[in-house]
User: Which sequence fits this backbone?
């Protein structure tokens, strides 16, 4: 099985970190490659950033289709370009939001999302409405760290714990979802800290949920439904 991970930002700084995280979740027989964009933004923290990244994402999807990969993970919790990508490739494509939330909905009644910054909140509320799960989202909170500031592990864990424990204590969530795929390698530690504080709740990592979803789709031989629109080959399109 060959999964391509599209890092929907420019630059190569994060590629090896993302590769290590994905390989930690993937099955031993799954081949993984990670590629960033040729054009786009340094991070996605708003709908404006998402719009700027879309052409670069779709370029990578076209390449993935040509290369015959078995599945694609666009590694961002905002699901940028996911639905457009599904129109141009005969393989399952997923972002971070949908698989993480569907997993969470099977583990608890109220889902608490903890994301990066306040300006991301409209994007996540919009996604919840699109997937018609807004009534199951008990709270969406922030750690007030930009995506490119998440490398400070200790600060990230402390702020995640503060927000998650308060949400659980107030009855706003009985399962926690990490609301950014840049929150690498912290799910188990947060879960253990919450349990030690008397809050034994699941913590869903969006990268883990996405990889498990893709591998399941490939093994089951299924691809998500798409619209009937299929764009012509790139060579035949008008400028």
Assistant:
């Amino acid at each position: 099985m060959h999964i391509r991970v599209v890092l929907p930002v420019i630059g190569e700084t994060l590629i090896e970190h993302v590769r290590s995280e994905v390989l930690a979740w993937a099955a031993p027989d799954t081949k993984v490659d990670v590629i960033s964009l040729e054009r786009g933004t340094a991070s996605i923290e708003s709908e404006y950033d998402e719009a700027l990244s879309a052409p670069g994402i779709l370029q990578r999807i076209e390449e993935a289709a040509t290369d015959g990969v078995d599945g694609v993970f666009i590694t961002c919790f905002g699901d940028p370009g996911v639905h457009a990508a599904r129109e141009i490739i005969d393989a399952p494509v997923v972002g971070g939001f949908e698989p993480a939330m569907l997993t969470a909905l099977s583990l608890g009644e109220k889902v608490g999302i903890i994301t990066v910054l306040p300006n991301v909140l409209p994007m996540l509320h919009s996604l919840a409405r699109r997937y018609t799960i807004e009534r199951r989202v008990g709270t969406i909170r922030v750690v007030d760290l930009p995506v490119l500031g998440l490398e400070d592990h200790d600060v990230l864990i402390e702020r995640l714990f503060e927000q998650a424990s308060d949400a659980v204590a107030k009855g706003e969530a009985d399962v926690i979802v990490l609301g950014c795929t840049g929150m690498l390698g912290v799910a188990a530690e947060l879960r253990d800290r919450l349990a030690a504080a008397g809050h034994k709740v699941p913590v869903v990592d969006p990268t883990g949920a996405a990889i498990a979803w893709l591998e399941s789709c490939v093994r089951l031989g299924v691809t998500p439904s798409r619209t009937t629109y299929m764009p012509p080959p790139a060579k035949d399109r008008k400028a």
In short: The chain is about 40% helix and 15% strand.
